[in-house]
Amino acid sequence: MTAPLKDVAPAERARSTSFYEASARTRLELLLDAGSLIEFIGPGQREVSPHLKIFDLPEQFDDGIVVGHGRLDGSPVFVAAQEGRFMGGAFGEVHGAKLTGLLRAAREIGTVPVLVLFDTGGVRLQEANAGELAIAEIMRAVMEARSAGVKVIGLIGGRSGCYGGGGLIAGCCSALAVSEPGRIAVSGPEVIETNRGVEEFDSRDRALVWRTMGGKHRRLLGAADVFADDNVQDFREAALELLGLVGPFGLDRLKAEQDRLAGRLRSFGACGDAIDIWTAEGIADAQAVPELPADQFIALANRIGRTSRDAR
Amino acid sequence: MLDEIIASLFPDGHEVRRDKGVILGSATLRSGVRMLVLGVADRTALGVDEAIRLSGHVLDSIGRDSGPILVLVDSDSQRMSKRDELLGLNEFLAHLAKVLIHADTNGRPTIGLLYGHSAAGALLATGLATRVLVGLPGAEPAVMDLPSMAKVTKLSMEALQEKAKSTPVFAPGLSNLAQMGAVHMIWSNAASLADQLEALLVDLPAARDQRDALGKERGGRLKAAEIAERVRDLALQVR
Amino acid sequence: MEDLSFRHPVRARAGGARRSAIVGVVASGNLEVLVERVLPDAECAVEIKTAAVGFGEVWSAVIGDFVERYSPGGLKFSINDGGARPDTVSLRLAQAVRLIAENGQ
């Protein structure tokens, strides 16, 4: 017997809802305490991109991002969620400015953390200059907020992944949670193939894409500290866990990150494939990693123990 | 060209070296202050190997020196390769930007000097991570090049060039980025770069990011500043 | 892009208390519907911006059916359409009416 959806307890609904498949609004609804989201400049304000009409393209009333305030286990949080299906979740002028404004407020307050639900291909081509600059402003705003004591947590598991400048913003966050389909990279597979040829990167080889850019590899490298199964409840729990782990930001973090990344180049710089890196990490059956179910993978990643905690 | 630029910037001497596309060193300003110098030369792609040297150069200087920091930029895009992405290029580029932003907001003002090409992730990690980004005439930043854009938008180059006449929002070029508020000023090649650098250092804008206001003032980005301000106000009220 | 606008007299006011609701996303073959309770009880309006030019008659038929079936009095629907098929449009309109009929803001 199936109960009507609204009668199902929120946690159960969040557990049974794929983060990858859900819209930005559904993710927020199920991630936050029920009914706690207050959106800033919502769709009713019709603050659409002023640039898409130049290209005769349809607009979206929220320009592909929801920003607002909500509660997580009773505590206040600021949230931003990109809609990866609208223009690939790409950053345009209005889209980016909403996140910048949110981060600036968080910096002034100093104590309310920010959750960013990334789902982006990077810069929106049709407003490339505005989008690029928006990303630069967001990176600066993230770092200024962190310097003021704000925890900025990135959650990555959407259909557009976290590419281009989105990957750089993710690199600026205090901590990341990622699911298997949550790819993090700068250049996308098609971009590498177009520029360097199919010998360099075959974008149609999905297994290659997942093991080079996907969540499991990012978790094993320590770029993401928590691996989430692909459902909204797991991301909610990941966000809570990370909020408990993150410490204050300072110069020592950047020095530790320099050592962490330089060490990664020393250890794995000559590896030609993710399988080689995982093997070098001491994983006996590296070939089997992509097939591991979430619980077994989490146990493996915890045993390997790579982390960017206190070093990002 | 880089040698001439460095000579014109630092007539009193410098120790700036170029190695595999990476610029590292320092120079003496006429005021006697040491300026840390780093950057990307020869239209080199910015990959993990380059980025880690640049961030290390800045971190080594923190605590040892006290002067401003100059970031020279003539780069390609980020290095597009399997190896760079495998190793987490996004973290390396973000790290470089973070180190520059941290230095700037902690007493080491950063100035970017865009003297050649740059694009995409490379520009975000270098010039766009500085407090003041200066362009030299002839610099040709391109967030996205028009041929790639033509391919994705399925518009002809002619159609794109026609659209670019009415808006600075998508097409490559220094003047477009200046109108957006990304490039603060364009220096003259005719005057001494040392004079222009020192004039800037004497009258440096505050560390606060005001690029959205600049873009509005210059008519290139009319919405960003207002939207950010409105969200900020709403977020401050919600408590 | 093409702009279309429809106004219909309606038998009854739409149920519920919410002031507005939004469903869908703008993507290829998809659309978003923003519904707002801003009109007199006996009126309904639908404003459409669509990427698919030349389908005014199809829209007219889909919306006529929708108004007849749901009697969405007092509601204004604003649609951004990425070229959705008529059945998708009907589905989103129905979802929008259901959502605004829920209790809440």
TrEMBL record, chain A:
Any one Gene Ontology cellular component term annotated for this protein: acetyl-CoA carboxylase complex
Domain CoA carboxyltransferase N-terminal residue range list: 1-251
A Pfam family hit: Carboxyl_trans
Single biological process term from Gene Ontology: carbohydrate metabolic process
Keyword terms of this UniProt record: Transferase
GO MF, any single term: acetyl-CoA carboxylase activity
Signal peptide: none
Protein name: Biotin-independent malonate decarboxylase subunit beta
Organism (species): Bradyrhizobium betae
Automatic annotation (TrEMBL), chain C:
Post-translational modification: Covalently binds the prosthetic group of malonate decarboxylase.
Modified residues (O-(phosphoribosyl dephospho-coenzyme A)serine): 28
Pfam annotation, one family: ACP
InterPro entries: Mal_deCO2ase/Cit_lyase_ACP, Malonate_deCO2ase_dsu
Locations listed in the record: Cytoplasm
GO cellular component: cytoplasm
UniProt record similarity statement: Belongs to the MdcC family.
Stored NCBIfam families: malonate_delta (TIGR03130)
Protein name (record): Malonate decarboxylase acyl carrier protein
